[in-house]
Structures are given as C-alpha cells and as structure tokens.
Amino acid sequence: MSEDMFRMFELSQQGFSCSQLLLIMGLEAQGKKDIELIRAMSGLAGGMGFSGQTCGALTGAACLLGLYAGKGTLEEQPHEKFDLMVNELVDWFKEQVGTEYGGITCADILGDDLQYKIVSMTCGNIVGSTYDKVKEILANYGIDTTEVRI
User: Which of 42, 88, 109, 140 is buried most deeply by CB count within 10 Å?
Assistant: First the structure.
C-alpha cells in the first residue's frame, strides 16, 4: 500500500468522505489546513448528501484541480488550461469508473450499499486512482502539488 493510500485509509477511518479525503491530501501536500473547506466538501459525499448522484471522488477531484489551478481572488486568473484539466479528468473517470460500474454516480458504483452509507474498498480504490490521476494531470500542465499559490 502506497503512503498516499495509507493516509487516505487513515482519514477514511476517521470518518472523512471521499471528496474530503482528496482535498485534505491536496492541502497536506501544500503544508496547509482549511477546516472550512473540508467541512464544505462534506456536501459532496455519497453523490451529494448521499443522494446517489455524481460520485464524490469525481466532484472532489474537480475541486482539487481547482485548489491548484482555479481562480481564488479578484486579481487572480485560473490556469489557462483549467477547464481542459477538468474535462480530461471527467473523460478519464467516465472511461475508467463508468465503464466498470455502468455509470459515474454513487448509485451506479455502490448500488444497494448506498442506502447504508457503506464506504467500501471499491470507494477506496476509486479515490486512490482518482487522486493519482489528478496528480498526473497537474504534472502534465507543469503544476507542482507542493507549491502554495498566493
């Protein structure tokens, strides 16, 4: 098990959801904490409030890309390829996860387990591979995940 996967497992055991895990990992890579952001990410869990909609690993990963490449202040501009990065992520997720599970919603992935709010090894594997994909996309666009934007 990689160091990243071990950390994500540890956070999952502490009750954090998939979308929260991804942002915690991104913030920790930058040596930062942001309780409010992590709290806000909880709304994406289980496909947005355990409604079974779009998987929180995908929506959380899009937010993680935004952490590194999105607009955060009036003066700041998003990375010129930000939308392309998010689209690349979505296309990859549809191909990898959607093909295997018949869709990209939590309902598609978890099936009946969704009603019990069961986070399975399936979720862990999806979150881990999605985190790796985000790091790959960022690296391809020359973005250092340890660098803090000011």
Answer: 109
